[in-house]
Each structure stands twice: as C-alpha cells, then as structure tokens.
Amino acid sequence: MLHIPNNAIITVAGTVGVGKTTLTHALADELNFKTSFEKVDNNPYLDKFYRDFERWSFHLQIYFLAERFKEQKRMVEEGGGYIQDRSIYEDTGIFAKMHADKGTMTQTDYQTYTSLFEAMVMTPYFPRPDVLIYLHGDFDSILDRIQARGREMEKQTPLSYWEEMYNRYETWISSFSACPVLRLDIREYDLLADQSCIKRIVHELSTYF
Ligand SMILES: Nc1ncnc2c1ncn2[C@@H]1O[C@H](COP(=O)(O)OP(=O)(O)O)[C@@H](O)[C@H]1O
Ligand SMILES: Nc1ncnc2c1ncn2[C@H]1C[C@H](O)[C@@H](COP(=O)(O)O)O1
C-alpha cells in the first residue's frame, strides 16, 4: 500500500485564486497534517502594495521572505508533517521578478532582494519540500475565483496583472527543479462540490514517496 510519511513537507503552488488554500485545508484534514499559510489578513504592506506597486514592492517582498523563512524553520523544527500554502520559490521566481521586469521594483532593490534570497534559500542547507503540487487551470475560471473570493484590493487590480502572472507561472514551472512536482488541473477535481476527490489526489501524491 502506498504511504505518505508523516514527516513530509508538501507545498502547494500556483497563481492567485487558483485554489491553493482550499486544497491545503483538504489535504491537511485528510492526512492529519499541520498547515502553514501565508500572511494575508494581517499583512502590513499588502493593501498599500496593491495601491502603489512602485512604492511598496520591495517592502512587501522583504516581509514575505522573512515570514516564509520563519515558517520554513518552524516546519523543520517541528519535524515536518506540513502542508504549506505557496512556496518560497514563487516569491522570487514569480513576484519579485515580475515587478523588476515591469519596472515597479528598481533594479537595485531587486538585486538586494535576490542576494538576500540566495544567501537564505539557495543553499544546500535549506530544506526543500518533498513534493510541490502545482495547481493550474484556465485563466477565466481563475479570474472568476478571484472575483468570487472578493478581496477588494485584488478585485480592483487590472486584468493585465493577473494575465501576466498566469503566463509567468507556466514558464516558471517548466524549469522548476528544486523538488519533484505533481501537476493538478483544477478542471479535473472540485473540492467544493465533492470532498471525496481528495482521496484521489492523496493517492496520486503517495506515488511520489
Ligand atoms: N473547485 C472550486 N470551484 C469553485 N471555486 C473554488 C473551488 N476551489 C476553490 N474555490 C474558490 O476560489 C477562491 C480562491 O480559492 P483559494 O483556495 O483561496 O485560492 P488561492 O489560495 O490559490 O488564492 C475561493 O473563494 C474558493 O472558495
Ligand atoms: N511575494 C509576493 N509578492 C507580491 N504579492 C504576493 C506575494 N506573495 C503573495 N502575494 C499576494 C498575492 C495575493 O494577493 C495574496 C495572497 O495570495 P494567494 O495566492 O491568494 O494565496 O498575496
């Protein structure tokens, strides 16, 4: 019988609104694992960032990096058994890079951020997840989910921002190599309509161990 070790660290990746949090809860319930979520509600920069990318992008990246690094440390110190909502790799590979490329983060700030990220994360000592679950699907459904969730700052953000991010995710995952990747298409399961489909996802996941 296939088995997922109870010290595993599984991270869920994918664009905003794709369903990471929903899957994180369902997997953790099914496996009796702990959860690690990103800081959205009490994030001191996120609202300001959406109102003025240029002014706040560096501050926000440093904040997320610090928070995710602390979470990473906690998960390892507690001996694993975690489902993590979003990976630290997306901060640099998607968000920081996108803002630097678009000119909403200065090149100097981007270099400072990148050198800090590399010193903290891209070392042999940094524990990698056992598996990264990559969620993907069609752009329109993801946009509908962002609207339905209703975070005002995201609803006010131009469609072109989400489109740019959506396209970057596909490029990013095609060269991602830090750990094994399980790709899940959100059109092939629906946790809100049928909670039992988590069993199929767990079975697929277990083949990675
Ligand atoms: N299978 C689904 N069908 C429809 N809506 C969904 C489904 N799964 C999640 N959602 C909804 O989509 C929104 C975004 O999901 P969420 O898990 O918060 O995404 P993420 O964490 O990736 O931003 C939420 O309102 C959630 O309830
Ligand atoms: N590193 C990041 N830079 C900018 N914005 C980020 C970063 N990480 C997360 N975010 C934003 C995107 C969303 O508005 C919220 C939460 O993301 P979600 O995909 O809904 O969990 O934070």
UniProtKB/TrEMBL annotation:
Per UniProt, the enzyme's principal EC class comes to transferase
The active site consists of 85
Binding sites annotated in the UniProt record for ATP = 14-22, 145-149
Assigned GO CC terms: cytoplasm
The record, for InterPro entries, names: DCK/DGK, Deoxyribonucleoside_kinase, DNK_dom, P-loop_NTPase
Protein name (Swiss-Prot/TrEMBL): Deoxypurine kinase
- Identify the domain of life: Bacteria
Family, according to the entry, reads as follows:
Belongs to the DCK/DGK family.
Against Gene3D superfamilies, the record matches this protein to: P-loop containing nucleotide triphosphate hydrolases
A Pfam family of the record is dNK
UniProt-listed Enzyme Commission number(s): 2.7.1.113
Q: Which GO terms describe its molecular function?
A: ATP binding; deoxyguanosine kinase activity
- Write out the residues that bind substrate: 38, 50, 61, 86, 91, 154
Is Transferase among the key words of this record? Answer: yes
Gene name for this UniProt entry: dck
Q: What positions does the domain Deoxynucleoside kinase occupy?
A: 10-206
Q: Please provide the record's keywords in A-Z order.
A: ATP-binding, Kinase, Nucleotide-binding, Transferase
